[in-house]
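ok, trying the design again with the full structure, not the truncated one.
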């Protein structure tokens, strides 16, 4: 079993007093760029970006958390996001914003209150500041690993995944732990983050950016792509380390048939 997410520890208290009624929770307000920017300046608001990690890497609002809705969004939302803040959402469209809000509520995160109308395109055409994360391929990473460049290779998967298969020289800090263990890393040299596919490592880059890290890279395709390219042994426990909202009984049966015939 992987480590228990933070929201597991809150579940007993929530169940004891009973959850809030859905009709009592705040609706997501569609905000113009100027309204969104104004709320960002208030200390009780934070930004959550739920687009793909490639979209986030291309351009995102400075300081935003990143949780790819196509990945294991609810588990990691409940795990890492602060519960004492209101969240402003960046999504592909309003429909995706509503889906993000539904999954967040299912892990006790009831404080998504605003959505950026027009998304990052609207933000960009106003000339406001954006940030980006460089995405690198398995081949590029292998060239760096076998070369002479100085960098930190940070494997943000769970310890069991890391122990099963990892790249020589990589250090393991599970992504949720980066919230406190970022102090163990060197900001002055490049930090390359890798997970099983690229989702958790993108979350990791957003956490490190919040703590002043600038020279960050995310491995596109993660260890799955690195192994498929023949550079490492395939990880046997990486397919679904924490359970995904897309992981169905059919997927489990298929894996059983593949393994057992």
């Amino acid at each position: 079993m992987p480590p228990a997410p933070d929201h597991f520890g809150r579940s007993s208290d929530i169940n004891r007093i009973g959850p809030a009624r859905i009709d009592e929770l705040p609706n997501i307000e569609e905000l113009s760029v100027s309204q969104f920017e104004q709320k960002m300046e208030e200390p009780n608001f934070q930004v959550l970006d739920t687009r793909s990690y490639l979209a986030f890497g291309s351009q995102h609002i400075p300081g935003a958390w990143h949780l790819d809705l196509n990945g294991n969004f609810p588990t990691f939302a409940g795990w890492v996001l602060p519960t004492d803040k209101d969240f402003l959402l960046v999504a592909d469209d309003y429909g995706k914003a509503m889906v993000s809000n539904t999954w967040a509520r299912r892990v006790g995160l009831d404080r998504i209150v605003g959505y950026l109308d027009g998304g990052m395109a609207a933000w960009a055409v106003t000339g406001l500041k954006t940030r980006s994360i460089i995405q690198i391929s398995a081949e590029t990473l292998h060239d760096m690993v076998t070369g002479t460049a100085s960098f930190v290779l940070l494997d943000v998967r769970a310890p069991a995944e890391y122990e099963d298969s990892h790249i020589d020289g990589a250090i393991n800090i599970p992504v949720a732990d980066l919230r406190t263990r970022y102090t163990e890393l060197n900001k002055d040299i490049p930090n390359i983050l890798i997970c099983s596919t690229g989702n958790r490592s993108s979350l990791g880059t957003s956490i490190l950016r919040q703590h002043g890290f600038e020279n960050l890279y995310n491995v596109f395709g993660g260890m799955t792509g690195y192994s498929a390219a023949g550079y490492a042994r395939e990880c046997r426990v990486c397919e679904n380390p924490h359970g995904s909202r897309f992981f169905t009984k059919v997927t489990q049966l298929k894996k059983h048939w593949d393994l057992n015939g």
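Keeping the full-length input from now on. The chain has two domains: 10-125, 134-246.
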